[in-house]
Specification:
259 residues; alpha+beta; Glucose Permease (Domain IIA); globular
Length: 259
């Protein structure tokens, strides 16, 4: 049986935790939006920071700074999935990961608030974009330690009661990118596969999906896109929520407009 930290629901951007299901999609169906090959497998939402704390409570001789090593973290995630009887997991939006990543550049920085979701699946899984969009840029900061690795930025329009809004999504820690700037994407287009260390930024294999307001993307393009991070200040949750909305929030705008 899963412990209370494993919730079959989606992240609530008001708290950074999982809430009561906000729609009818199962965890596997949610993960399958980005990783189609897992849409019918055993999937749960996990808070990896909580799981790391619990792991160290059980193994008191383990130095938590070891999670910064990609191979060590891969073994941790694989063992966690095996213990829970699941094939994959996702989560991470607005998680405070100050314990998990204390051995990385984030340790002690006060900027350990995760601004996207992580799809924790093996390397080489195809990555899909579940909405209309246009590829703005593809880049790669390898060999930057704990970096983005290969990354794709995709622009989309999402309507709501207040009007039509421009957002940009970053898909990161990739390999074998198969799109290019200017590429117009239909829903469910494959853009890459999940990468592995050391060329995915040096992390355990996972897909990072981060959503930002169009103006936020424009700001980072103007000052240097290398300044954009996947983590934000832990004391500025509300501002980070506005600038970097829940990546699953596009589900409220399924009838998106084509660009």
């Amino acid at each position: 049986m899963m412990s209370p930290t494993h919730r079959d629901s989606v992240p609530d951007p008001s708290t950074g935790s999982a809430s009561v299901a906000q729609h009818s999609l199962s965890p596997a169906e949610l993960l399958g939006l980005f990783i189609p090959s897992y849409s019918s497998k055993r999937v749960a939402t996990l808070d990896l920071n909580v799981e790391a704390l619990e792991n160290c409570a059980r193994s008191k001789d383990f130095d938590p700074r070891g999670f910064a090593d990609a191979d060590t973290c891969t073994r941790f995630v694989d063992a966690l999935h095996s213990r829970l009887g699941i094939d994959a997991s996702f989560g991470g939006y607005l998680e405070d990961r100050s314990f998990l990543w204390q051995g990385t550049y984030l340790g002690g920085s006060g900027h350990e608030l995760h601004l996207g979701i992580d799809c924790n699946v093996p390397a080489d899984c195809p990555v899909s974009v579940p909405f209309n969009g246009v590829v703005l840029a593809c880049d790669d900061d390898t060999p930057e330690p704990w970096g983005w690795g290969p990354r794709v930025f995709i622009e989309t329009l999402e309507p709501d009661a207040a009007g039509v809004h421009r957002y940009v999504y970053a898909f990161a820690h990739l390999a074998e990118i198969s799109v290019h700037p200017g590429h117009i994407l239909a829903p469910n287009t494959t853009i890459a596969v999940v990468g592995a260390a050391p060329t995915n930024g040096g992390w355990f294999p996972h897909l990072h999906v981060q959503k930002m307001r169009g103006q936020v993307y424009d700001h980072y393009r103007s000052i240097g896109i290398e300044k954009l991070d996947g983590y934000g200040a832990t004391h500025a949750i509300e501002q980070n929520m506005r600038d970097f909305p829940d990546p699953f929030s596009f589900l409220a705008s399924r009838n998106q407009l084509s660009l």
